[in-house]
Task: structure prediction
Amino acid sequence: MKSKNNHKGILGIHHITAIAGNPQKNIDFYTGFLGLRLVKLTVNFDDPTTYHFYYGDNIGRPGTILTFFPWYTMPKGFRGTGQVITTSFSIPEHAIEYWLNRLKSHEISYAGPIKRFDDGEDNEQVITLYDPDGMEIELVAHKIAEERKEYVWRKGPVPEEYATRGFYSATLSLEGYERTADLLTENMGFSNTKKEGNRFRFEIKDKEKMIDNFYSNKEKRKLDLLNSPSSVDLICLPDTRRGYMGLGSVHHIAWRTPNDESQLDLRKRIVNTGLNATPVIDRRYFHSVYFREPGGILFEIATDPPGFLVDQNEDELGQKLLLPQWLEPDRKYLEQVLPKINIPSLDKFTNYSSSNQTDKGLTEREKRK
Result:
């Protein structure tokens, strides 16, 4: 790793973690329909009787990882302010028709495509759908997705040329956005680049300089850093009820940082703003620091290393339950109490059925447009 200078040390989204209900429906939807790879099958380290599913591209690059805790006894969440309300995936522009047909053939309700930030050249085309627990997902077609050829799961059910290319962004719903915007711009390296109605786009500034500062040429090639997702949208909804956590809710959003040194520097900067941040926590596949931003959303700063190949090779990813060493003595007990699931193999995927989809409509989204 190269040494740091004055760049902030956030490159974009590392992962997003949400709450699911039925674990098998979650696996079937995200692998069988959306075409993500189950990169890691483990447990919630803070609640080991609950699974922790990690989905992503072929090796689980930061910027592709969507994770779930299947807390199936929880009530349904409510989407409102103080939450990440939308998780957006990148797709190539030529893939729009494919995904519309795929949604129709699986009888999944959707809205769009609609244009967003339409300036005549660099617009986004957005398709909105919901997962089995009502979590809002967007498929965003845009030019840069064509360059993200490494951000796919090539052995999945979606042909490579149409597959999702990691995250595009996430949408944060806030009663007032100014303090969160200040945190992003003053302490996390973002810049406010676009505005459309009550939607504000923030993107990492000086991204190329920061990459040159922190990463070796080998790391740049391996992680495809220049094309990594590096934007987030804030929506200001002052008259909207505050959301609460439950099935279909995003638990937290994690921002990627190159290494332990940059993470500690960011933690110090966050604490100096008056926010409370946890000590560094070892999550085996990355190191984490958590804090709540001024609008109440749980943020995490997660390191790129060590990554998901630390305990499995690429062909083995997601094929068996992995436990941290301190939980291995409890393996037999945990395997008895965890729900039985069918793990997708590398050459066979459960076909996602329309009976797995949520019956949630699109009315909440229409209300905030």
About this structure: The domain at 12-368 is CATH 3.10.180.10 (2,3-Dihydroxybiphenyl 1,2-Dioxygenase; domain 1). The chain has eight helices and 16 strands. The two ends are 44 Å apart (CA to CA).
